[in-house]
Design a protein that fits this description.
Blueprint (H helix, E strand, L loop, with lengths): L2 E8 L3 H8 L9 H17 L3 E6 L14 E4 L3 E2 L14 E2 L2 H13 L5 E3 L6 H11 L8 E7 L9 H16 L6 E7 L16 H13 L9 H8 L9 H7 L5 E11 L2 E9 L12 E4 L18
The chain binds 3,4-dihydroxybenzoic acid and fe (iii) ion.
Length: 311
């Protein structure tokens, strides 16, 4: 049977992709961020999974506001990088795993999750930046990727609880696939950031760190967090963090955090990164937890703004 062996959570800031593509990773602004992902790159190269299920959101690249699926599953054999306005990223095409993806579609839909089946889709920074952070700049991505796209750009996004339960259904789907694949699931987006309006630039490290603490040890305490709490505390784009809960639901309760990195800021965003391993892997902390605040305070805490202004 196939098995989900680990989960990776990471932010997906587009400027990180640009820094990689333009050869700027060694510059003082970017260097601490990329240093934080070095242990992760080694970890995933050693693990060499067969498939990544990559939970992300499309930022009006593949789907316009004309069609907005809540959950869309990429069943194609190949996905091209999207042109987000300055040309497609010079990264390899993503190779899918249609057999597992179709099996997941069947299992999830019969389990009453109404997935949209996608047979052709371009993938934007939400998917390609996490791949770059974890795999660097290879000629071809060393893993098959099943994109799972979640609507967090147009109200109403799915609840955290719905995401968490979808994760559990994904685990059941993967475990009922009759080929011995080793699967890692990525949950991407977040952490705190707001790109628009009077609170643009908001970063809330206390909320982010608390979210990471509860995410590993007590995820059930997060699943009922209302959307408005994400938006108030973590900014309008902080709602992307509900996608992490799909990853957490797909892992076992006893999954262990083996790596954490948190860096402020990268572009407008607090970058949070976790690696969790399921108990079937021999658990090894791969590096000390690192929390870095690279730049002078850009932070605007929620209490800095009037109570009534939340977007
Ligand atoms: C930024 C972050 C995002 O998650 C995104 O989708 C777009 C921009 C940013 O920090 O610039
Ligand atoms: Fe985003």
């Amino acid at each position: 049977m196939a098995e989900i062996i680990a989960g990776v959570a990471t932010s997906h800031v587009p400027a990180i992709g640009a820094a990689i593509d333009l050869g700027k990773t060694g510059e003082p602004y970017w260097q601490p961020l990329f240093r934080g992902f070095e242990p992760s790159k080694k970890w995933i190269a050693d693990l060499a999974p067969d498939v990544v299920i990559l939970v992300y959101n499309d930022h009006a690249s593949a789907f316009s506001l004309e069609v907005i699926p809540t959950f869309a599953l990429g069943c194609a054999s190949e996905f091209a990088p999207a042109d987000e306005g300055w040309g497609a990223r010079p990264v390899p095409f993503v190779q899918g795993h249609p057999e597992l993806a179709w099996h997941m579609a069947q299992s999830l839909i019969l389990d009453e999750f109404d997935m949209t089946i996608v047979n052709k889709m371009e993938v934007d920074h939400g998917l390609t930046v996490p791949l770059s952070l974890m795999f660097g700049q290879p000629e071809a991505w060393p893993v098959k990727v099943i994109p799972l796209c979640v609507n967090v750009v147009q109200y109403p996004p799915p609840t955290g609880h719905r995401c968490y339960m979808l994760g559990k259904a994904i685990r059941k789907a993967v475990e009922s696939f009759d080929r011995p694949l080793r699967v890692v699931i990525f949950g991407t987006g977040g952490m705190s950031h707001q790109l628009q309006g009077p609170r643009a630039g908001l970063i809330n490290r206390d909320f982010d760190v608390n979210f990471m603490d509860r995410f590993t040890g007590d995820p059930e305490s997060l699943v009922r967090l209302p959307h408005v709490d994400y938006v108030r505390e973590a900014g309008s784009e902080g709602i992307e963090m509900v996608m992490w809960l799909i990853m957490r639901g797909a892992l076992e309760d006893r999954a262990k955090e083996v790596y954490r990195y948190y860096h402020v800021p990268a572009s407008n965003t607090a970058v949070g990164h976790l690696i969790l391993e399921n108990p079937s892997l021999p658990q090894q902390r791969i590096a000390e937890t690192r929390i870095e605040f690279g730049m002078p305070q850009l932070d605007r805490q929620p209490e800095d703004v009037a109570d009534e202004v939340i977007v």
